[in-house]
């Protein structure tokens, strides 16, 4: 007589975590473009996991139906929600739903011993995940505060520079107006050129004032000396070379158009700041390399390039400051003037900082 032994049917709660809920939970993790935002996807995964855990209470089979892929996906969803979801209320609801669904997975063990052991393990994993998510969120919050502080400092520095240069031009306008009033009776033919000079100076001043949001002067701040940009750059490059007696002297190059041009006060101040910051980075990260500073100009743009002969070593800290925020400040200053900023390694193995600034002021002699 033949005896046929039939295997009990596999409960759906056994294969669902492997083939359905686990992969779907993992698919909710990437930051690719989905029709639903991340909180909605995370809440959907939590609802799906809770439904399966509740179903396990009514399916009379032995064993455990905890899906490890589903459990780890829930854990990483919790970490990502803590780190990236804003506002805080949305984050709290999302994390709470995911945490409950993860804790409820212990019900799938169906035995008291399994429930206690499963709850213990899930609680430990959940605690570690929440701690990691909070650390990532706090670190990102500190980084964003540091970036905001750097950008604010750059805005205030630009405002101070503009204040100094605008005050210089306004003084010139007042002097020209007084001169025109004085010679009006004796040399009226000279009044018209004086008025034209006043118009040019006033236009330049208004163009600078358009970018000035507010002014903040600190104690001990030295006023920016208005003057020839090439002379200022020459002093900066010369001082840099004197601090590197054993390295090749830095070179300052300027095109013929740049030598014959005049620039807005904020453009001059920004070019000086970019060059000084770039040379400071070279001093820190490539102290013995050859450095070239080049100034170019055309009717629409002012361009400055600082190049050193070797790119940064992989072990070097981020360029632009020990905390990595120097380049952020430069970019903020340049973009505030509608310019472009780039810093990085070139194809020839050099490190280069490039800045382009628009030229709202036409070429003409300084009306002073």
Key descriptive features of the protein:
368 residues, alpha+beta, five-stranded mixed sheet, disordered C terminus
In short:
Helices cover 57% and strands 9% of the residues. By secondary structure, it is α+β, with helices and mostly antiparallel strands.
List the helices and strands and how they pair.
Blueprint lengths: L11 H16 L10 H19 L11 H17 L3 H16 L8 H72 L7 H19 L19 H14 L8 E4 L1 H4 L5 H21 L5 E7 L3 E8 L17 H11 L3 E6 L5 E8 L10
Parallel strand pairs: 1-2
Antiparallel strand pairs: 2-3, 3-5, 4-5
- How many helical stretches? 10
Which residue ranges are poorly predicted, with pLDDT under 50 across at least 5 consecutive positions? 1-10, 213-226, 314-324, 361-368
**Secondary structure tally: strands:** 5
Structural class: alpha+beta
Mean pLDDT: 75
Task: Choose one word for the global shape.
Answer: elongated
User: Approximately how much beta-strand content do the residues carry?
Assistant: 5-15%
The strand line-up of the biggest sheet is 1-2-3-5-4
Helix-strand pattern: HHHHHHHEHHEEHEE
| Helical content band | 55-70%
Question: What integer value in Å does the Rg equal?
Answer: 33 Å
> How is the main sheet built?
5 strands, mixed
Distance N terminus to C terminus? 119 Å
């Amino acid at each position: 007589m033949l005896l046929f032994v039939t295997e009990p049917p596999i409960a759906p709660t056994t294969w669902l975590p492997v083939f359905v809920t686990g992969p779907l939970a993992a698919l909710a993790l990437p930051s690719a473009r989905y029709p639903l935002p991340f909180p909605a996807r995370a809440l959907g995964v939590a609802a799906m996991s809770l439904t399966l855990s509740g179903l396990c209470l009514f399916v009379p089979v032995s064993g455990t139906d905890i899906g490890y892929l589903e459990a780890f996906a829930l854990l990483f969803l919790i970490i990502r929600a803590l780190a990236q979801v804003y506002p805080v209320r949305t984050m709290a609801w999302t994390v709470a739903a995911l945490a409950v669904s993860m804790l409820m997975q212990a019900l799938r063990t169906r035995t008291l011993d399994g429930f206690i052991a499963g709850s213990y393990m899930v609680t430990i994993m959940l605690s570690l995940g929440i701690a990691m998510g909070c650390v990532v969120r706090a670190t990102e919050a500190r980084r964003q505060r540091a970036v905001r502080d750097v950008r604010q400092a750059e805005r205030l520095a630009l405002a101070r520079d503009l204040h100094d240069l605008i005050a210089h031009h306004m003084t010139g306008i007042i002097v020209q107006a007084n001169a025109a009033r004085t010679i009006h009776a004796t040399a009226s033919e000279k009044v018209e050129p004086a008025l034209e000079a006043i118009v040019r100076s006033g236009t330049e001043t208004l163009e600078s004032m358009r970018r000035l949001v507010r002014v903040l002067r600190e104690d001990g701040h030295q006023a920016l000396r208005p003057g020839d940009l090439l002379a200022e750059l020459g002093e900066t490059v010369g001082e840099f070379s004197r601090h590197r007696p054993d390295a090749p002297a830095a070179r300052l190059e300027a095109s013929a158009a740049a030598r014959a041009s005049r620039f807005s006060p904020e453009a001059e101040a920004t070019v000086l700041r970019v060059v000084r910051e770039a040379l400071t980075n070279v001093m820190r990260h490539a102290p013995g390399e050859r450095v070239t500073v080049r100034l170019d100009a055309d009717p629409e743009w002012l361009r400055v390039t600082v190049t050193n002969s070797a790119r940064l070593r992989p072990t070097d800290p981020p360029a632009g400051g020990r905390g990595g925020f120097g380049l952020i400040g430069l970019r903020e200053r340049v973009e505030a003037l509608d310019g472009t900023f780039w810093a990085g390694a070139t194809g020839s193995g050099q490190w280069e900082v490039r800045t382009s600034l628009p030229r709202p002021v036409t070429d003409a002699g300084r009306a002073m």
